[in-house]
Amino acid sequence: MKYILICITLFFCGYFNFSCYDNKPGILKIDVKGIITDIYQDRGNHEVYTFNVEADSWYDGAFIADFYPRSWEYAAIGDSIIKNKGETFITIRKSDGSSKIFETRVK
Question: Is 107 within 8 Å of 93 (Cβ atoms)?
């Protein structure tokens, strides 16, 4: 009986643990068009790279850049960031008109 109870407990713990890390649906829902106002490592969130974004849309505030590898190295304060709902990538556009696309690492 103990064995069955332990197996059931492990199954549910594993199921809920892995389902919590599925960030792709959350990434697909985000719609951001704005200006990067700050780039920093969030010390309170495992030092992930983060953009502060000032946007015209409902999204205004912290945007986790760590989901898009090396985007924080390319971006600078004042650059535009575009993330359309349903897409898995962001576009960072410089003031000189050049831009680069960064695909998410969350699969």
Answer: no
The pTM of this model reads 0.72
- Side-chain-side CA neighbours of residue 9 (13 Å): 6
Q: Domain segments of the chain: what residues?
A: 2-103
Give pairs for 81-90: CB < 8 Å, separation 24+.
81/32, 81/33, 81/34, 81/35, 81/36, 81/51, 81/53, 82/32, 82/33, 83/30, 83/31, 83/32, 83/33, 84/31, 85/28, 85/29, 85/30, 85/31, 86/28, 87/28, 88/24, 88/27, 88/28, 90/32
Q: d(Cα 81, Cα 77) in Å, to the nearest integer?
A: 11
Give 59-92 pLDDT, tens digit per residue.
768 899 999 999 999 999 999 999 999 999 999 9
